[in-house]
Design goal:
single chain; 294 residues; alpha/beta; 8 helices
Amino acid sequence: MLSGPHIRPPHRLEEPNRSPRRAGGCGRFEHSSDLPAQYEGVEVYEGKPALVYPRRRPEASRVFVCLSFCGGGTSPMHAWSRAVPDDVEVVLVCYPGRESRYGEPYAADWEELASEVTEALVSFVRRPYVLVGHSMGGWLAFDVAARLQRSTRPGPYGLVVSASEPPSGWADQQTRPPFVTDTDEQLLAWMRDSGQLSPVVLAEPDLRDMAVSLLRADLRVSDSYRYAPGTVLDLDINVLFGAEDPVADRTAAHGWRDLTRGRCRVTELPGGHFYTPDVWATLPRYMTVPSSPR
């Protein structure tokens, strides 16, 4: 287990004071409020952002708050709730313009999205929590943690970043595809090759169009991110990367060591940007974070 002297004191993450809506199936990028049969009973607390609880564990002592990738929603992370210890609850953050927030406009830029997530965590903090981010979600987790640290408000006691380059290299990252100016065909090819789109989505024209629109909107958001030089966290960080990921590779993963005064553990996993299906479905099992804040 990671531990260190820079862990924040305990805080609690609880649901907002509002009634949950029971979700009933949607595919990865569907706009319907329904979820697949295996997600029956999922609770969604609507708001900005919506918080999704795939499996409620109100008595859990700590929470993994998960932030999705560019062009993604919460559905691909639902299975994670079945791969955590009994004392952990998984909470998924739904960005605007998708799933239960389909009717809302996409975030205009990075500042809007990061501010929304930051304020939500401040409002709902009750239990100790770890921020978990995949790909773009890793940058968002880092930025949100930095904002909370600067404000001296309660923040996470650990950070897990998956398939994510260190945000200090934002300028280099923005020189590599995908680009917001890419054609629909180019964006679809990138999502297919990276493993972001399932064959089901690729086979349905409406879902393909939705996936492209969502990715393009999130690319606009990520393109507006700027790392503030000198920003370093006082947190332990666990970095996960795929052995076959051509971008967020071993060198990039180790670059996160420069962004924390705490400990940084780097873990290599099989597969590419989304690992292998089995690894993805059980990703929390590879997350080495403190069992409790100190």
